[in-house]
Amino acid sequence: MKPQSDVSAEIGQLPTYSYQKNLFPIDIAVTYPNDQGTADLSVIGTGADGRDYAIKTIADGNGFVPITELFCYELARALSIATPEFQIVKLKTHELAFGSVWEGGAGITKTLPDMLKILKGELPVRNLKALLSKVYAFDLFVNNIDRHFGNFLFRTSYRENIGLAFDFGRSWYEISPYDFQALEPHNNTNKYHLYAKHFKRYDRELASNTLTEISKIEQDTILQILSMAPSEWLSTEDKDKFVNWWGSSDMIERINKLKGEL
Q: Which DSSP symbol is given to 168?
């Protein structure tokens, strides 16, 4: 484990991430029950923009799924971790929900045999080692206990297959932003990480650098991300507590602990 001074030295070498984004809710014209066999997704909807969305509401889980998804998607993008597009969507009840754009088109299926082909390089994916390494470090930081092959999307791009990470619904405030359940060896995040290590698709140094990049993101960026969310998704008290925690000695201690566990 590196001492706090080592982390601080590394932080100074990284560029500042500048954040600015506005979201306007997309009206959902029609909804469908989920028939994809996914326990954490109950509703799929078509928006007024013609796109389909995987929809998460505050009725899901412990009530923090939408804010957790929004925060994790935006934090991932700050680290150049590819995710699907998303919008805040408005249901016919006028409730605001999180909507992840349903990615269609040509893709690679994600059954275990196909995932093994991907890990072996028989189905090449651009920068696969970097993707799996960065996502693993990211998941540990946001306390994601449920990263498995079903919440990676592998699809064809212009010349190569690419990978995207999605579904952060069992992390951050839905579990706890300050604890370490993601380090427990028997959750999906760590069980499936063993596949990446076995097939040498994991770079510990890159994972460590990802944690350092997280440390570099400014407090103002976190405030702006959380300010995007509807007020009913996260209380002002919880928002203020997390923003004040960001960049604190407690956060640096968390980064150091996670680096020691990579």
A: -
Confidence of residue 206 (pLDDT cuts 50, 70, 90): very high
Residue 6: count of CB within 10 angstroms of its CB: 13
The DSSP bridge partners found for residue 229 are: none
Q: How far is CA 26 from CA 75, 90, 239, in A?
A: 22, 6, 24
Structure-block tokens of residue 205 = 């140094």
The residue-averaged pLDDT of 234-254 equals 98
Contact 100, 38 (CB under 8 A): no
Per DSSP, 54 falls in state E
For residues 31 and 55, give the distance between their C-alpha atoms in angstroms, rounded to a whole number: 9
Torsion angle, CA of 134/140/144/150, rounded to 10 degrees?
40
- State whether residue 118 is helix, strand or coil: helix
Tally of residues, the chain? 262
Kindly give the pairing relationship between strand 52-56 and strand 152-156: unpaired
Give the integer Cα–Cα distance in Å for 257 and 121. 32
Take residue 143 and report the two structure tokens written for it. 């306390």
Nearest CA to 136 among 258, 14, 254? 258
